[in-house]
Amino acid sequence: MLDGQSYNPQKIIKQILISVFISLGTIIAIFLILSFRGVSIDFSQFQPIWLVGGFASIIAAWLIDALRLFFTTQAWEKPISYRNSLTGVLSCYFMSSITPSATGGSAAEMLILNRSGMTWGEAGCLTTICGILYQVTLLILLLIFVLVLGVHFALRGILLHLLYSFLIFYSTLIFLLFFFLNRMDLVYRLVHWGMRFANRHFPKLKFSEEHVLNWVNDFFTDFKNGFRILFINKPQYLILNIFGYSLYFICFFSVAFFALLSLGVYVPLKQVFVHQIPLYLVFGFLPTPGASGGVELSMSSVFLSSTGPEKISLFILFWRFITFFLTMIIGAITFFRVLFAIGKKLSRVAPPTKAAISGNEPHISNSE
Questions:
Q1: Which residues of the chain have pLDDT under 50?
Q2: What backbone torsions phi and psi does residue 289 show, to the nearest 5 degrees?
């Protein structure tokens, strides 16, 4: 499965450069388009002190998300240290920012959870359910702002179609997940077909079919047990996750509020929230690494009427630096630290023992 050796640092660096290039290229394009139209950048009301609030908000979001993960692991009675939970969420942010449709984030978080003492099935179940609750929380917040607080917003064009696509996609995904969990015979057939395909087309791949089947069986057994734990035995952890994600989004979406204030633009906080919620529901469908390009353009279109063309490019630059580039830098440092720690442990293991590491992998200690 996944381990520290599965991540090639050179490929990761390449993905970082691609993601940064797309994001910075889009921001520069916004500056250039406005300059070609004769729009000058307005620094007249710039108050950098408000950006401190943006930095504080993003750090608070990280800490709250780590606390959510810290408490959630206790449902399996395998609590991890808060430091490891913070490592998990930061690694997730980093890999999400450099992989298409943020697909690498879950794998990175699973790696940290597995190294912290959970099985792959338990880590996969936790990550999957939390991923679903992440989107559910966004929908709940949107309904609260619209139906309870009376905030109005307009979602038209491609964003509206993407929102419909999101609802259809996640409904289908949840249906298939529960279907296969209750039809393990189909899972084993697919695994057998995959192994035959690999043997036929990739003969150089060497693996034990018995080991693969045992791993799949253990993975899905732990996965099903995890669903039973969270949905039947300990549903309070579902509520805890929704509450934790709600606090996380409040802090995360507040970054845009402070970025606007730094430019002398006041937009009511609840309006700032409701502008961003639908966007984050659909950003996962964007195929670029970290949704780069689409994120900048979407936020520009949503907040242009509030900032005006003179300030929109600066707003996007400040907001994107705090929510994306800063998170990527901190997440990269954290994740590479984990990879180097794993590499050092593997280098100390004798060759005959390395083959068995997948069944008994070293854990991350609090000192690493």
A1: 1-2, 4-5, 350, 352-362, 367-368
A2: -60, 125
